[in-house]
DNA sequence: ATGTTTATTGATTGACGCGTCAATTAAAAA
DNA sequence: TTTTTAATTGACGCGTCAATCAATAAACAT
């Protein structure tokens, strides 16, 4: 029963299903069949729209990245002072949407995937560069070494992600932990 | 040409080869054949000694963990003050042996593997718990909240590992970055 | 010598999964 | 109504890979 304009609907369904499957399996060892089944279609259709499995994974990651970008912009727009901007950036990294186990699992797996897939690596670089730029720009007025501090904060975010993915999250709030840890490195406002 | 007592030699060769293969591929998508070939034997022999592929991976990770433990003990034994002990712990995490790209790749992949393999998860918990205990014990005399600080430092170590694995390491020395970042949270010696 | 144990592998099996393709359906266009 | 076009799938070919097994060969024991 072919209705027209199914492509975007199918693509989104597949992307969502892929993220869910990756989350359920905890790895990228997920078959196109399983993804398609969850998305309510045949695997042939998935191949028809995406070409191959890697493209599905990449689309899933792009989807997650886009969601994160929205989260960041939304929070940044409500921040005025550098300190508020820093808080916004860090809290965005641990927003509900990013902290979803499925999303964390996808992140972790795509980190590894980036090792062997130049396309995945490029996507990761986009995220990293954007976060780094945002942090440096925000820190410049209030930190002596904005670049070094930004790199440390970024690594800390990544590290807390891993710990969350491994279920060892008894930490109340990763964001406030980072901010408290960072505070001594910020200059007094004058 | 069966010489006797080959088992330990074969096992070590397979473990080393597995780490090399994982490092070369950047993922766990490595065939038993490839590992066996690199180790200079047939895949049947690998199965003979290890039973299945997962056991090879686990043995490889145990091997890496053991090497890390040696590194830690060695450096701890030469430290007297709490501050020296902290330096020893952090620097051990970024020792040459841990920073080897092959080893980093293995770590990253086994993080993911732990998601679906209880055995791998148990191994990771051993490492995490040991590091956490060491950090807390070391920090107790010089930090107000040893547990929270230990968790943050551990996450920071993990995060810097990822960045190293992704090749974005322009940072001079991760260890000194961590120590500098941690310094303000240590109490004055009295 | 003869038998037992250990080491070793080539060949094989069985399963699985990606990607393709021809065929089908039904909406839209002519 | 006829034709085109988008949507959709079942079946399948092809390759891959983990794991098994029977067979061979050398060391050791008696």
Outline the structure in words.
The structure is a homodimer of 190-residue chains. Chain A is an all-alpha fold and 190 residues long. The first copy, chain A, has a domain at 57-185: Tetracycline Repressor, domain 2. Helices cover 73% and strands 0% of the residues of chain A. The first copy, chain A, is built from 10 helices and no strands. The first copy, chain A, has helices at 7-25, 32-39, 43-50, 53-76, 82-93, 96-99, 101-113, 118-139, 146-165, 174-182. In chain A, helix 1 packs across helix 7 and helix 5 packs antiparallel against helix 8 (118-139). The longest helix of chain A is centred in the middle third of the chain and has 24 residues, at 53-76. The first copy, chain A, is elongated. The relative contact order of chain A is 0.10. The A-B interface holds A 25-27, 29, 105, 108-109, 111-116, 121, 124, 128, 148, 151-152, 154-163, 165-166, 168, 171, 177-178, 181, 184-185 and B 25-27, 29, 105, 108-109, 111-116, 121, 124, 128, 148, 151-152, 154-163, 165-166, 168, 171, 177-178, 181, 184-185. Chain A binds a DNA duplex (30 and 30 nucleotides) through helix 3. Chains A, B: This is HTH-type transcriptional regulator BetI. Chains A, B: Residues 31-50 bind DNA. Chains A, B: GO terms for molecular function: DNA-binding transcription factor activity; transcription cis-regulatory region binding. Chains A, B: One of its GO terms (biological process) is glycine betaine biosynthetic process from choline. Chains A, B: Keywords: DNA-binding, Repressor, Transcription, Transcription regulation.
